[in-house]
Amino acid sequence: NAGVTQTPKFQVLKTGQSMTLQCAQDMNHNSMYWYRQDPGMGLRLIYYSASEGTTDKGEVPNGYNVSRLNKREFSLRLESAAPSQTSVYFCASRDIAGGADTQYFGPGTRLTVL
Amino acid sequence: QKEVEQNSGPLSVPEGAIASLNCTYSDRGSQSFFWYRQYSGKSPELIMSIYSNGDKEDGRFTAQLNKASQYVSLLIRDSQPSDSATYLCAFDPTGRRALTFGSGTRLQVQP
After folding, report:
1. What is the average pLDDT score of chain B?
2. φ, ψ for residue A60, nearest 5 deg
3. Pairwise CA distance, residues B24 & B4, whole Å
4. For residues B100 and A59, what is the distance between their CA atoms, to the nearest angstrom?
5. What is the model's pLDDT at position B97?
6. Pairing outcome for strands B11-14 and B105-110
7. DSSP state, residue A73
8. Chain A: closest CA distance from residue B104 (Å)
9. What integer is the mean pLDDT of A54-76?
10. What's the pLDDT score for residue A41?
11. How does residue A99 score in pLDDT terms, banded at 50, 70 and 90?
12. pLDDT for A2 beyond 80
């Protein structure tokens, strides 16, 4: 049971390049999330998927797209990277079943855009 | 007004003391509140959740919720150097199916 996995762990891009951040969970959770974390800003929600086949914008969606490929996988795509997208990106999944509400985070992707 | 506010710290306490971390939130309809701990360079991990007014204890941790005052706190008794981390509060805003996080309070426990 790996929990939430993310690839890659580190990435350096040049302005204008594109990339996809991958996330997978093996806990059979319906809800999955993408956050970015910048110093002093806390975790800010980019996009989320409450269930397979649905996605919704969060607080800071501009410049990003997402795909909920299946129940396990939720990817985040940067079409044309900008220096302002330099951040640490966390994927998370959430279990609200049976009265317990627990959100699990992946290890994060550290992205630098030059 | 920010949805959730935390003092960024650092909050420095001596080993063995009680650390008190506070959080205020703006959404009166919120029902679920959480405390996450994040070590430097790591991802957040859930340490406490609380849904009802009052106190909830789990080992050395006590979460306190006051919905009338829109205030949630975390007490850490017998603080240890290993408790040194950033503590994030989070809540479930009304009508949104995603948690909103505060910017975190950095706690330093001095040996």
Report:
1. 92
2. -135, 65
3. 6
4. 9
5. 78
6. parallel
7. B
8. 6
9. 95
10. 79
11. low
12. no
Q: Which of A31, A43, A102 sits opposite B88 (nearest CB)?
A: A43
List the one residue out of B22, B21, B7 whose CA is nearest residue B71: B22
Instruction: Name every residue whose Cβ is closer than 8 Å to that of residue B39 and which is 6 or more positions away in sequence.
Output: B85, B86
DSSP per-residue letters across chain A: ---EEEE-SEEEE-TT--EEEEEEESS--SEEEEEEEETTTEEEEEEEESSTT--EE-S--TTEEEEE-SSSBEEEEESS--GGG-EEEEEEEEE-GGG--EEEE---EEEEE-
Q: Given a cut of 80, is residue A10 above it in pLDDT? A: yes
Question: Is A48:B99 a contact under the CB 8 Å cutoff?
Answer: no
Which chain A residues are within 8 Å of B3, Cβ to Cβ? none
- Number of CB pairs, chain A paired with chain B, less than 8 A apart: 48
Cβ–Cβ below 8 Å for A48 and B97: yes
The residue length of chain A stands at 114
From the list B43, B100, B103, which residue is nearest A105 (CB)?
B43
Task: Tell me: pLDDT of B14 over 90.
Answer: yes
What mean pLDDT comes out for the span A73-81? Answer: 97
Range B70-75 average pLDDT: 95
Average pLDDT of the segment spanning A63-87: 96
Partners of A102 on chain B (C-beta within 8 Å) are 46, 49
Q: Which residue's structure tokens are 């420095």?
A: B12
User: Using an 8 Å Cβ cutoff, are B60 and B78 in contact?
Assistant: yes
Q: Quote the tokens at residue A79.
A: 């079409």
